Structures are given as structure tokens and as C-alpha cells.
Amino acid sequence: MKAKDIEAVEFVLLEQLKKHISCEFLDKAMPKITLLGSGGALWIASAGAMFVSKRYRNTACTLGAGLITGSVVCNALLKKLIKRPRPCWIRVPDGMLIEIPHDYSFPSGHTMSSFLAATIIAHANRELGMAAYGVASAIAFSRLYLYVHFPSDIFAGIGFGIGLGKLCCAISDHATEKRTALRRGNRT
Fold first, then answer.
1. b/e map of 80-106 (b: 16 or more CB within 10 Å)?
2. For the chain, first and last CA: distance in Å?
3. Whose CA is closest to 142, among 49, 30, 6, 9?
4. Confidence at residue 126, expressed as pLDDT on a 0 to 100 scale
């Protein structure tokens, strides 16, 4: 399947979403939900809140490092390398509910940072992680609803977010194990 064919299918999905799910309640809620993911705001605040607790301080640091890494990989590299236009640049829908973004579409940065954060939070606390995945899913859906991303942008954001989140957790766990081993070695 060619890129133009995939894009045509994605436009059909976006149009069906708009036709069958659009309503006044969601028109008011989705801009607010998407705002939670803007610049990783919710996840940066979450890292700050976790940093206060000694139990979650390492998770907060992992989350902060992950968000910075994800921003570089997603926004500074991939978006500028791939340069995929947003659906709202190609077909401007009637009544955009948010300002049209100026950066490229692929992958979704809101989605990537949200799923990265949820993965790291779930690694530390399963219950909090499930709640974070729920919020991440709502943020990802909002990007489709608001017509600023194609479905493949969202799926790529989910994949990159979970993958980078798992990588950050593995690096953090390895560093923690090394610190623990060094402390035990110093005690003998």
C-alpha cells in the first residue's frame, strides 16, 4: 500500500470519528484534555510531585530524563526528519477547536510523552500506572478528535513512548543495581 493510499484511509477514519462521535460535550472536553499533554505539562508536574516522596524520587528522575529524551527523539529529530503534514493542514475542517499546530505531525509528541510517562509510572506502581495509561489514552484520543494527528501518528507515538519508557526503566534499574552493589561492596 502506498503512502497516499494509507493517508486516504486515515482521512476516512478521521471523518468517521468526526461524524459519529463528535458532540458538544467532547467539543468542550477534548481541548482541555489535550492541554494536559502540551509540553508534557501533566507529566512534568507528576515528576515534580513524585520527587517529593523519597520512595518515588528515582521514578521522578527517570521520568524527567525520559521526557527530555523523548522530546529530543520525537520533536527535534523524527518530526523534522519525516516532515509529515498534519491532517488539518491538508483539509482544514470547519470549526477547529484548538489553534492549528505549527510543527509536523509524525509521531504525536503528546501521545509519545504520555505513554512514556505512563510506562515509567507503571514500572514503579502498577495502580498509578493504570491510571496514567488511562489519561495517556484520553490525550492520544484527543489528538485524533481535534483533527491534528493521523491515526498512524498516534500509534507511532504509543510505540515510541512505551519503547522509550521501557528503555529508561531498564537503564534506571541497571544504575540502581550498580549503586546497590557498590554500597554492599563498600560495607565489606
1. eeeebebbbeeeeeeeebbeebeebbb
2. 63
3. 30
4. 96
Say if CB 36 and CB 118 are below 8 A apart: no
Q: Is residue 35 classed exposed, middle or buried when 0-12, 13-18 and 19+ CB atoms within 10 A define those classes?
A: middle
What is the spatial distance between Cα 47 and Cα 31, in angstroms, rounded to a whole number? 23
How crowded is residue 178: how many other Cβ atoms within 10 Å of its Cβ? 10
DSSP letter at 55 equals G
SS percent in the chain: helix, strand, coil, step 5: 80, 0, 20
Tens of pLDDT along 94-106?
788 898 999 999 9
- What pTM value is reported for the model? 0.92
Provide the residue type at 162 as one letter: I
Total Cβ atoms within 10 A of residue 17: 15
Using left for φ > 0, alpha for ψ between -120 and 50, and beta otherwise, residue 38 falls in beta
CA–CA gap between residue 15 and residue 17 (Å, rounded): 5
pLDDT digits (tens, 9 = 90+) for 64-99: 999 999 999 998 899 999 999 999 999 887 788 898
In this predicted structure, what is the pLDDT of residue 70? 94
Q: Which of 141, 69, 65, 130 is nearest to 108 (CA)?
A: 141
